[in-house]
């Protein structure tokens, strides 16, 4: 499965690991889990690990846009971890679509991303 989720810190932090190419069906598991965590905990902190991610098909891109609109204010901090130059650019591209504070970390600095998410 291209999307793997793991709850950390009692569900207040969600680690989202994506790889390969996403299709619309990949959101069928992800979105309900995200909705559940927001309902339980309010605004979340998210580690979005894009290491090995290659992109979306058109259906997945549409699902991502719908997700961004619905959850515009549900993410407090978003740590984006990647290994490609375009992924760093994606972190900048995402800023208008969320109220979250966003920072990009190279995959070699993933521990720093976790530390940033844990800050008070």
| Name given to the CATH architecture | 3-Layer(aba) Sandwich
Helix content: 25-40%
Number of helices: 4
Structural class: alpha/beta
| Largest sheet composition | 5 strands, mixed
Beta strand count: 7
Biggest sheet: strands side by side, in what order? 1-2-4-6-7
**Overall 3D form:** globular
CATH superfamily, please? SpoIIaa-like domains
SSE string, helix = H, strand = E?
EEEHEEHEHEH
In the residues, how many domains can be counted?
1
Give the overall pLDDT as a whole number: 89
What fraction strand?
Answer: 25-35%
Runs in which pLDDT lies below 50 for 5 or more consecutive residues are none
Question: What name does the CATH topology carry?
Answer: Rossmann fold
Cα Rg: 13 Å
Query: CATH top level?
Result: Alpha Beta
Alpha-carbon distance between the two ends: 33 Å
Explained architecture:
It contains four helices and seven strands, in the order E-E-E-H-E-E-H-E-H-E-H. The strands form two sheets. A five-stranded mixed beta sheet has the order 1-2-4-6-7, with helices on both faces. Strands 3-5 form a two-stranded parallel ribbon. It is 39% helix and 32% strand. The chain is globular and about 40 Å long. The chain is α/β, with parallel strands linked by helices and 120 residues long.
């Amino acid at each position: 499965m291209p999307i793997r989720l793991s709850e950390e810190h009692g569900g207040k932090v969600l680690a989202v690991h994506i790889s390969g190419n996403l299709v619309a069906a990949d959101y069928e598991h992800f979105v309900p889990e995200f909705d559940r965590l927001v309902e339980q905990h309010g605004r979340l902190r998210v580690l979005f690990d894009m290491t090995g991610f290659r992109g979306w098909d058109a259906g997945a891109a549409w699902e991502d846009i719908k997700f961004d609109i619905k959850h515009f204010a549900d993410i407090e901090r978003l740590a984006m971890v990647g290994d490609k130059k375009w992924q760093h650019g994606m972190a900048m591209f995402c800023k208008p679509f969320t109220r979250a504070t966003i920072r990009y970390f190279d995959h070699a600095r993933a521990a720093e991303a976790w530390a940033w998410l844990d800050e008070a």
